[in-house]
């Protein structure tokens, strides 16, 4: 008799995990269901998302594409947010064909060995007024460093900014370390 009750008990919870629920507080997160305090994540337009940058010393602006990312984010639930993504080095564009080619060399981004840049968040902290700090690991040329991206949310887009020093990733555009500052902007349009 006890084994029969165990089977019913397991079957009930297995079936519960497979059900879908209306908008009554039961919202899916990565295939799991929570009873309370679960929020629907924002949906982002992957095709229109972009990353831009400005190499301060030379006033060189550009873009990097080939974005592949997964953002799990709801402004009401930042503790459970995550930002994971990558970009392809070969798409780096500074509007100068020769310079872009040089940046692919071993001395700089070493495209053949390290074709992608990676980011993986570890914490997301709300700072009020639609501002969020995303702390995580940025990996370039196989070198991982922690960075902080400041995101601002409006009705149409989640916009982020951060600054790095390329010397921290073994990319020495200039010999003098302080001249290797790079400002980066992230633009993630929200799907309505």
Structural description of this entry:
The chain is mainly beta and 192 residues long. The protein has two domains: 1-38, no CATH class; 40-189, Lipocalin (Beta Barrel). It is built from two helices and eleven strands. The chain has helices spanning 2-18, 97-103; strands at residues 28-29, 32-33, 50-55, 60-64, 68-72, 82-88, 116-126, 131-140, 143-153, 157-165, 181-189. The strands form two sheets. The protein has a nine-stranded antiparallel sheet, with no helix packed on it. It has a two-stranded antiparallel ribbon with strand order 1-2.
What tags apply to this protein structure?
192 residues; 2 domains; 9-stranded antiparallel β-sheet; two-stranded antiparallel ribbon; 12% helix
Q: If classified by CATH, what would the architecture of the largest domain be?
A: Beta Barrel
Radius of gyration over all CA atoms, rounded: 21 Å
What about the largest sheet?
9 strands, antiparallel
Share of residues in strands? 35-45%
The topology string of helices and strands comes to HEEEEEEHEEEEE
Number of domains: 2
The best one-word shape is globular
Tally of DSSP β-strands: 11
User: For this structure, what is the CATH class of the largest domain?
Assistant: Mainly Beta
CATH topology of the largest domain, by name, is: Lipocalin
Layout of strands and helices, then pairs:
Elements: H1 2-18, E1 28-29, E2 32-33, E3 50-55, E4 60-64, E5 68-72, E6 82-88, H2 97-103, E7 116-126, E8 131-140, E9 143-153, E10 157-165, E11 181-189
């Amino acid at each position: 008799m006890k084994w029969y009750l165990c089977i019913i008990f397991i079957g009930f919870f297995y079936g519960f995990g497979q059900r879908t629920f209306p908008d009554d507080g039961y919202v899916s997160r990565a295939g799991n269901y929570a009873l309370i305090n679960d929020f629907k994540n924002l949906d982002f337009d992957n095709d229109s998302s972009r990353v831009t940058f400005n190499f301060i010393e030379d006033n060189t602006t550009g873009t990097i594409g080939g974005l592949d990312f997964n953002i799990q984010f709801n402004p009401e639930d930042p503790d459970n947010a995550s930002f994971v993504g990558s970009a392809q080095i070969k798409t780096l564009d500074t509007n100068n064909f020769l310079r872009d080619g040089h940046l692919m060399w071993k001395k700089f981004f070493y495209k053949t060995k390290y074709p992608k840049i990676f980011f993986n968040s570890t914490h997301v902290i709300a700072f009020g007024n639609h501002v969020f700090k995303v702390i995580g690991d940025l990996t370039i040329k196989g070198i991982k460093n922690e960075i902080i991206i400041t995101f601002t949310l409006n009705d149409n887009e989640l916009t982020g900014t951060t600054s790095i020093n390329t010397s921290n990733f073994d990319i020495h555009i200039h010999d003098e370390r302080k001249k290797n500052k790079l400002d980066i902007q992230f633009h993630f349009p929200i799907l309505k």
